[in-house]
Structure formats: structure tokens, C-alpha cells
Amino acid sequence: MRVLLGGIFIYAAWTKLHTPWEVFAISIDSYQILPLRAVELVARSLPWFELLVGILLLAGLWLRSAAVATSLLLGVFFGLMVRAFATGQQINCGCFGPGELISWKTLLRDGSLLAGSLALTWMAFVRRRRAA
Amino acid sequence: MRVCVFALAALWLSRAAAPGVDLSKALGTPSAPITVEVFSDFECPACKAFHENVLPELMRDYVIPGKVFLASFEFPLPMHQHSRQAANYAVAAARVGAYSPVADALFRGQESWSASGNVWGAVAAALTPAQQKRVQALATDAGVLAQVQSEIGVGQRVPITETPTILVIRGSRAIPIAGRLIRYELLKQLLDDLAKR
Predict the structure, then answer these.
(1) Potential cystine with B27: which of B16, B70, B121, B138 (Cβ 3.0-4.6 Å)?
(2) How many angstroms separate the CA atoms of B128 and B37, rounded?
(3) Could B187 and A26 be called an inter-chain contact, meaning their C-beta atoms sit closer than 8 Å?
(4) Does A26 touch chain B (CB under 8 A)?
(5) What is the pTM of this model?
(6) According to the CATH classification, is domain B2-196 in 3.40.50.300?
């Protein structure tokens, strides 16, 4: 699960970093929750954060922190996607670059990733408690 | 109306355009460093918003100054009952040099004709009586129907998943931007960044 999530995060970061930041910014902006300045800040920084988290997960470094960050990120993404879908906003999810509308399929995928990430976080903390 | 005025002011040149581009539906200089291809559906509310809010600014800041070549592609979605017919009329109007006024009229009256089905009413209002006769005949012409189908094919190869989608092309690089809410400030920033490269 750790390797899978790490790989997915690195891929997600790559899809955003190989296109100009404005493309991801347009996806973020379509959720209509952030002002323009914040949209720019998130569009410029989030892909690098995803890349960092992905590398940490793959390498197994700072696993508890990386797992918590992954769960928080996926929790926020999933919550925003559910909100957009429930309010009938037919927008791009922005998960892996442009061109992917939020649908039951994307919700199921991201929900599964969130469940996996929560399980990973739980296991990371349990393992530490056992080691102590 | 604003788009129509800009359209008339823009340059209509016929050289070096990308393959598949109908120059009678394009605006600006084909040799401009950046090409923006717009895939839209006349019955889609987000396309109307893009056409009325973003396009006039894009025309003013980039197309008229020769920085961007703007090409329009029809991409009528099957979920919209009358959008194919509207696309046929628009392509027919392009053949008599009236694409921009007809596109403006179709988007302006979208709510009305999409409910009533009277697409021709909106189209006719933007044409002279002589143009009306020609457009009505051309709208069922095999060449026009084939062109609409061909433009849909171009979109499917991108691939387009929603409308409007714009394809920003700089050199060999094509960047698809799909979004029901494309904020002009972000598109402007992207075009400025690409122009610097």
C-alpha cells in the first residue's frame, strides 16, 4: 500500500509539473473555493508537496508523517470532489492533469485511495507502539 | 456583439494555418506564435460563458495584436438536442463570411432556441436576406455536414471530454485546457508565460 500510494503521488505530481502551473490552477479554480492568489499559491506548490510525499512513501522515510500527510491530502481532495459532485458541478477533478470529469468512477478511486491511506497511517502508528 | 466587432477588426489571412482549421471560422494571423483552438457546443451554457466573457478579452489582448491565432471547432455534444443543427448553420454561415455574427447570435439566444428548437430564428436574425437564402441551402449541404463531422473527429482525437475545451498550441506543444469555468486572468498568465519561452 505504501509503494502504491507513493507511486500514485509521484505520478500525480508529474502530470501537473510537466504542464504549466496555470493549467492546474484552472482546475483548482473551477472548484470555486479559493481566491485567485490562493489558487496560484496552491497550483505552484501542491505538485511539489505531492512529489515529496510520494518519494517519502516510496523510500519508507518518516513514514508516520508521510502517511498522515497523505491521508490529510486525500481527505481534502475527496471532500472537495464529493462536494462538487453533490452540488452538480460538472468540473475536472484535476487529480492527474486536465480532462477528467468528477464522476462516480473518480469518487470510488479517490475514496479507495483514502481508505488505503488511513489504513497505512493506522498501521504506521501501531507498528511504532509495538516497537516501543 | 463585442466579439462580432472584434471579429470584423481582426485579420483574416489565409496562410500557414494548422491542418483541420477552417480559416473562415478563424481569427487573427495564422503565423502568430501561439494558436488557440476552441472546441465548443452552441447549446452548452459554459461555452456561452466562455464566448461572452473570456473570448472578447482574448481577442482584444492577443488576437488583434497578432499574438494569438484563434481557431473555432464545432463539438456538438450528443446530450444537446439542437446543438448539431446549430453547428451546421454556423459552418454554413462561415461559408458566406458570417461565422462570427451567427456564433454571437446563437450564444446570445441560447436559452431561447434550446428550449423552443427554433435555431433558424436565432441564425436568421444575424444575416441579411441574401445570406439567409444561402445559409439555409448550405446547412444541408453534404460538404458542410462533412466538415462538422470532421471537426468532431478532430476533437475526439484530442480527446475532448467536455466543452468548452481549448487547446493552446506553441510550436510542437499542445496544452489542452478543459474547464467549465476558465478564468481569463489564468489564461492570460499562461499565454504570457508561453510567449516568453
Answers:
(1) B70
(2) 28
(3) yes
(4) yes
(5) 0.84
(6) no
